[in-house]
Amino acid sequence: METAIVIGASGGMGYALVNELVSRNIQVKAFARNKEKLVALFQHHKNVEIMSGDVFNEQEIMRASKGVDIIFHAISFPYQDWEKLHMQCIDMVINIAERHGAKIALVDNIYAYGRQSKNPVIEQARKEPHTKKGKIRLTMENKLKNSNVPSLIVHFPDLYGPNAENTIFYETLKNVIQGKKANFVGNMQVRREFLYTVDGAKAMVELALRDDTYNQNWNVPAVHPIAGEELVKILREITGYKKGIRTVSKGMIRLIGIFTPSMKEVVEMLYLTEEPVILSGEKYEKEIGALPRTSYRVGLEETIAWMNKRAQKLENL
Predict the structure, then answer these.
(1) Ranges of H-type helices in 146-269
(2) Region 126-141: what's the mean pLDDT?
(3) Judging by beta carbons within 10 Å of its beta carbon (0-12, 13-18, 19+), is residue 316 exposed, middle or buried?
(4) pLDDT attached to residue 2
(5) How many CB atoms lie within 10 A of CB 118?
(6) What is the mean pLDDT of residues 226-254?
């Protein structure tokens, strides 16, 4: 691979993918809507070409993708727009990849797995999603598999990391470092996975660089499952945060959803906070090698340092 485009480069995983690709001396086109944010994130990277535009303007994406070997599909949308926008976007990306002779690497989550009776979950597990968003992700997966484009689909659990602002854990982190009363979504005693985006990007780029990994699904788990109370303990030790952290339940979010449509869309996915899907990394480790496994303490220290640095820059503007 000589050149790649990351669509959704201004998001958490998109940002991590650009950085990982650059670290491997690959020329990267960083594509997203907000040029100002792209410049703030990547202006000092000599191997990054900043390209802002509308992901639904096919001519813009077609021009941006010219000459690339791989299209990293790292874009997401507000939950309430998933059905319309994700389908439209994946169809267009497939069409562009076919015309340019490029491969597609899809950043995916665990929603398509639905409820699973056994953990850890392997790639061959039967997918019968019971949620609307899980069915959408499975449809996206099948569209890729039924196309003529070489593709790899990488399943990640919940994410955290530098610039990962649209994650379930971000609001907790943000309020902790600001010294405000913080919330944690879900049962604090249930052990779930939170993957450091830097680790996820390292694993995904490694997969994308190989020829024998395509037309397959790959799971990339976190370093290990962890309970919310354990995460909070680490956060307190790192930051000195003393305030209480409130648990946000399904009932609370359902109530908020009466007034905020976007919150209503969160409710159907909250089963994952009670019945988590824990991913198996056995296939990756058998066929590729050791998974990147940054400890939660180090990952959180690096994430908080990034957030504090960004907040300082904003204050100085």
Answers:
(1) 170-177, 197-208, 228-239, 250-259, 261-267
(2) 97
(3) exposed
(4) 87
(5) 9
(6) 90
Q: What is the pLDDT of residue 59?
A: 92
SS3 state of residue 135? helix
Q: Strand 151-155 and strand 103-108: pairing?
A: parallel
| pLDDT band, very low/low/confident/very high, at 258 (cuts 50, 70, 90) | very low
Distance of alpha carbon 25 from alpha carbon 38, whole angstroms: 19
d(CA 156, CA 133): 15
Nearest to residue 113, comparing CAs of 103, 102, 126?
126
Structure-block tokens of residue 34:
């907000």
> CA angle 89-90-94, nearest 5°?
120
Crossing angle between the packed helical segments 296-316 and 228-239, to the nearest 10 degrees? 50
Position 259 confidence tier, pLDDT thresholds 50, 70, 90: very low
Three-state DSSP state, 124: coil
**Contact indicator for 15, 23 with CB cutoff of 8 Å:** no
Nearest-angstrom CA–CA distance, 142 and 215: 11
Amino acid (one-letter) located at 132: K
- Residue 267: the pLDDT is 86
Do residues 221 and 280 lie in contact, with contact meaning Cβ atoms separated by under 8 Å? Answer: yes
Short-list 79, 101, 243, CA closest to 177: 243
